[in-house]
Design a protein that fits this description.
heterodimer; A: alpha+beta; six-stranded antiparallel β-barrel; four-stranded mixed sheet; 16 strands; elongated; B: mainly beta; eight-stranded antiparallel sheet; 39% strand; rod-shaped
Chain lengths: 382, 455
């Protein structure tokens, strides 16, 4: 008679019986868990791949590492199919921490148990860090918004271990203990948050639109920047609404008779602005006078005419003195917001889309310092 | 103290957020995602609103938060606290109906600014990122701009001399995490510490343009070593004699004003005298240069001369048909006080007036022989029977005493300045010692007039 032992080197019928019973227990008492299966980092094209951020032959898998230096998978692929498991966890009260960016759940780490055999059978592999799960029983139908869909609750798996309570008398484990943390709207979960908020009407916004605080944060940011631009639209100082008096060499006011009215006299157009200071030059003529613009001076001009040369950088305003065009001012005032078109001396090195044709080859002007004029085969435009 | 608040520190924070805005990171597919920047010290209620009052909302990352960590007075930049800077501004005329500035001169101002108080504002910016590559992408874009500072402006107002400052990057706390990370948190926080030298300013005083338009200069008496104010002022400095400066003790005051112009008054019309030429300059010239904004019927001119104890004044309007002239509406109260010519035959309230100016050789006085009636005569009378054998000289004032005409004011012996008003015309005349002139007519040399264009 063989000795009695619940442990066996192989998983026998006892194990199978217990495993099925436990699985049934999860079916009866567990909650639905929708799993967004992690498939690995996004594939890099061969051209963009580097030694430490490689392109994997046959495409990346869940075991691939995107960045060998920083050891992180930041651009993640997720299976468009959703896998349904059952899980059990202790519901707990949560509090919010008020941080610089708003409220964060202070104790939002959940520990959930799932059935090993079922999860492997359904997922095709063991649950792993990076898998995202959705708990449909935690949807919030009463959020303060105007959305027609309830807010779902997403967690990401941080760690997967065998649950201590999941060991049966056979000494074989039946449960995985998942350490879960609420996801954030970041680079890592882009594919999930790009999913439609309402599967039945995929054109009506993404999960990000309803779940993430990003949109409202950008609206707040834009409002503050708009106020900043109202306070100081451009660098330097605005003197456009000030009046500059044209004077003769003796200091008297320079008047000229209006051509259209024999009795009318009007002040002559000043040869320079009446105001001095830091960054006052604009592309507007003093006192709101009319001016022409272009890349070459007009052939017929009268003394006092203004003309803006747009081929100068910065644009330059000239005044015709009767015999020649003399420089008045440069339009040096620029928007101080960090826009894609800001073109100061410093930002012109960054906001630069110029290209040059050099010996028949089109070369982008903007190149990274480390990559410019590298030997052929090593350079990469950036 | 009256309440005032200009939101000065608030504007610095606003500009700091602007400075850090519009940066982004690029994912592997080339998508550039902008990073939101907000103020870091938000309230719990707003935080709840931002997440739709739901625990299912998820925070976004990366993002940045800007918040104040300190504010200290900067003793090294303190300056004379009583210093007041004055700035003179001419504004373009504003068309309030069209809501636009026109190409002509509008209101003029003088702005007085009190020395602002220097402070150092310490600001931190926290950068939350979810991975190292993302963090380095953002940091590289921001840090390359600081070498070691960036300029910001709280306003682009030309008046605001405290609006321009720099943001100095003083330090970087690279990570909030220890290495290795431990058991938790995907999110990493890098902190940039900035210092901003700022000024806090009191409100300014905005006044009408206060540039100097008239200069009255006292001349030092070389012999006595004093300024002698009793000597006769120099009336005309257009042609200064060769010995003027050696004989300077006789000329204690020099008055001048814009371009050395004088004024010529002809009844209700005034023309500008330039280089001894009347009407050579158009009034547009003066009105354009002078502080204030000309308004017909509101702008005012003041005139004086050595015979006037007070300035005479009136409002004026430009003569549109001849812009070398203005038409003045005199303030009668500003005209000189009439002299009193005592008489027992005339109403006590009319002792400083005459009834008419007449030529006695062509006027038959029989109709005017009423007790107390007065004439200023423009010809002499020598035993004329019509005038009851009266003997009087040209420019005399004669009065009827009920029986005969007699000389009330003898021009031959009176050389003091006298004023009298002709009740027939309402005009006032003054006796210069030689002739009767309209009291306000004639030349007013430079320095003896001024304008108040705003009334």
């Amino acid at each position: 008679m063989p000795r009695l032992s619940l442990y066996k080197p192989e998983r026998g019928n006892d194990y199978a019986f217990l495993d099925k019973s436990i699985s049934e227990m999860f079916t009866i008492g567990g909650t639905d868990v929708f799993v967004h299966k992690y498939l690995g980092p996004k594939d890099v094209s061969n051209d963009a791949a580097t030694a430490d951020q490689p392109s994997y032959v046959g495409g990346s898998a869940e075991t691939s590492i995107q960045d060998m230096l920083f050891l992180e998978n930041r651009d993640r692929k997720y299976d468009p199919n959703i896998y349904n498991l059952r899980g059990i966890y202790n519901v707990q009260d949560i509090d919010f921490d008020l941080s610089q960016f708003g409220l964060f759940l202070s104790n939002d780490t959940l520990f959930m148990t799932i059935h090993i055999s079922d999860s492997v059978r359904i997922l095709g592999r063991k649950a792993m860090a990076g898998d995202v799960i959705e708990l449909p029983h935690l949807v919030d139908e009463h959020a303060l918004n105007d959305y027609s869909v309830a807010l779902k609750r997403f967690y990401v798996i941080e760690d997967v271990n065998r649950a201590s309570e999941g060991f049966s008398p056979t000494w074989y484990p039946h449960l995985y203990r998942l350490k879960l943390k609420q996801i954030y709207d970041g680079q890592e979960f882009k594919e999930i948050l790009d999913l439609p908020a309402n599967e039945e009407e995929p054109g009506e916004g993404s999960l990000r639109d309803i779940l993430s605080t990003y949109e409202v944060e950008m609206q707040i940011n834009d409002a503050v920047v708009a106020q900043a631009e109202t306070d100081a639209g451009k660098s330097g100082y605005d003197t456009a609404h000030y009046y500059s008096l044209s004077t003769n060499s003796d200091g008297s006011v320079d008047l000229e008779t209006a051509q259209t009215d024999a009795n009318g006299n009007t002040a002559a157009r000043p040869a320079r602005s009446g105001y001095n200071g830091y960054l006052l030059g604009t592309t507007d003529a003093p006192n709101g006078a009319e001016f022409g613009m272009g890349i070459s001076f007009p052939l017929e001009s009268q003394a006092g005419d203004y003309f803006l040369r747009t081929d100068f950088l910065p644009k330059r305003l000239f005044r015709y003195n009767g015999s020649s065009w003399t420089k008045m001012q440069d339009g040096v005032r620029v928007n101080m917001s960090q826009t894609d078109t800001r073109n100061t001396q410093k930002t012109s090195f960054i906001n630069n889309t110029n290209s040059s044709n050099i010996a028949g080859e089109t070369i982008n002007e903007r190149q990274s310092l480390s990559k410019a004029l590298r030997p052929k085969g090593l350079e990469t435009d950036n | 103290m009256q309440h005032f608040y200009d939101g000065q520190i608030r504007r610095y924070i606003t500009q700091m957020i602007r400075m850090l805005s519009n940066f982004g990171y690029q994912d592997i597919e080339g998508n550039v995602v902008r990073i939101p920047v907000t103020y870091g010290d938000l309230t719990r209620q707003v935080a709840n609103i931002m997440r739709d009052n739901s625990e299912n909302k998820i925070p976004s990352a990366p993002r940045m938060a800007v918040y104040i960590t300190g504010l200290e007075i900067d003793r090294s930049r303190t300056a004379d606290q009583s210093f007041v800077s004055k700035l003179n501004i001419r504004e373009r005329k504003y068309d309030s109906s069209g809501k636009e500035y026109l190409d002509e001169q509008g209101k003029n101002y003088t702005v007085e600014r009190l020395m602002p108080t220097p402070y150092t504002l310490s600001v931190s910016a926290d950068l939350w990122s979810t991975n190292t590559d993302q963090k380095l992408q953002i940091l590289e874009q921001i840090l390359v701009l600081f070498n070691p500072s960036l300029e910001i402006q709280t306003t682009d107002n030309y008046i605001d001399w405290a609006s321009l400052t720099v943001v100095n990057l003083e330090g970087i706390t690279y990570s909030s995490r220890s290495v290795p990370v431990g058991i938790d948190s995907e999110i990493d926080i890098a902190t940039l510490q900035f210092q901003v030298p700022i000024y806090l300013s009191a409100p300014v005083k905005v006044k009408r343009l206060g540039v100097i338009t008239n200069i009255i200069q006292s001349i030092f008496h070389a012999d006595s070593g004093e300024i002698d104010l009793q000597l006769t002022p120099l009336q005309n400095t257009d042609n200064i004699p060769d010995n003027y400066y050696t004989d300077i003790a006789e000329q204690p005051l020099i008055k001048t004003n814009y371009q050395g112009y004088g004024m010529f008054v002809d009844n209700t019309s005034i023309q500008i005298i330039s280089k001894n030429k009347v009407g050579a300059v158009k009034w547009d010239d003066l009105l354009e240069a002078y502080p204030g904004q000309y308004s017909a019927g509101i702008s005012r001119i003041y005139l004086t001369n050595e015979n006037l104890n007070n300035e005479i004044t009136g409002t004026f309007a430009l003569n549109e048909l001849d812009t070398t002239k203005i038409v003045i509406d005199w303030d009668l109260d500003s005209l000189p006080t009439n002299s009193v010519f005592t008489s027992n035959f005339r109403d006590a309230n009319q002792l400083s007036t005459i009834d008419a100016i007449v030529d006695p050789l062509i006027l038959n006085p029989i109709d005017f022989e009423v007790q107390g009636y007065r004439f200023l005569i423009t010809n002499s009378i020598n035993n004329n029977t019509a005038w009851n054998n009266l003997v009087a000289n040209t420019n005399d004032i004669i009065e009827y005493n009920g029986t005969n005409w007699y000389v009330l004011f003898d021009s031959e012996i009176s050389n003091s300045v006298s004023y009298v008003t002709n009740t027939n015309t309402g005009k006032q005349y003054y006796w210069s010692g030689e002739q009767w002139l309209l009291s306000i007519e004639g030349e007013y040399s430079k320095g003896n007039w001024r304008l108040s264009l705003d009334g």
